[in-house]
Specification:
Blueprint lengths: L5 H8 L5 H9 L13 H5 L5 H5 L23 H11 L8 E8 L2 H6 L7 H4 L3 H11 L9 H4 L2 H8 L1 E5 L8 E7 L5 E5 L12 H16 L3 H10 L8 H6 L8
Parallel strand pairs: 1-2
Antiparallel strand pairs: 1-3, 3-4
Amino acid sequence: MPILGLAGAVETVAGMNDPDEARGAVSTRGGIDDPLGDEGVLAVFADATVDGELFRPWSSDWELERNAFKPYPCGIVAHPAIDAAIEAGAAIADTDAIEAVDVACHPLVPELMGAVAPADGLHARFSARHGVAVGLLDGRAGLAQFSDARATQPDVSRLRAVTNLIPTPDCDRDSVTITVHLTGGDDVEVHVAHARGSLARPLTDAELDAKVHDLVEPVLGAGAAAEIRCAVEEITTQAGFADLLAVARPKRAGA
């Protein structure tokens, strides 16, 4: 079938409930001379295009290199608050003394992750308060902290209930200021200018290794993360991906 303008194809099949009818209608439409031209695919997705960006060499500048790595298994808008909570928790000898926690954050944080009392691990991933609570209590926020068991434990529930998300319009998305109020003690305040894992504060190789270890070893077994790293480092000297795929698969019973 000739290449169709996306808008034309959508317009043709819109409102048709019979797949055969839709297929037949689309097949009768003619193609366009230039799929990248004024009536082509790009015009559907963008108001304007820059040809130089489309056709420049791809050997040096890769958008993939501007991707960030998430250190925590939850909504990214909560990551600055988790960073601050972990840092604050290290300065608190007794978390039972925490009376209240104020989190001055970007307005998107309470909008997207404002859940107060998540019922399980999945819902905890959408609760910035939960991330703050486990950061203060556990000093980390990995998969175990977002499990069903941890999401419903009393110490976590208590801290979530006393944590206030304060939308602050002039606060950047990857920034936060957390203030922990203690019984009979001085407040603990931590400011995070840029969250870990952001482009301004990328994860170190050691932090990435730790993330891979925590994700991989419960599934593939002890030592699997180191084997995968070794296979990745040697991939340019190999004829294919067989060695990498072999260490990235669960071991068979008896193997």
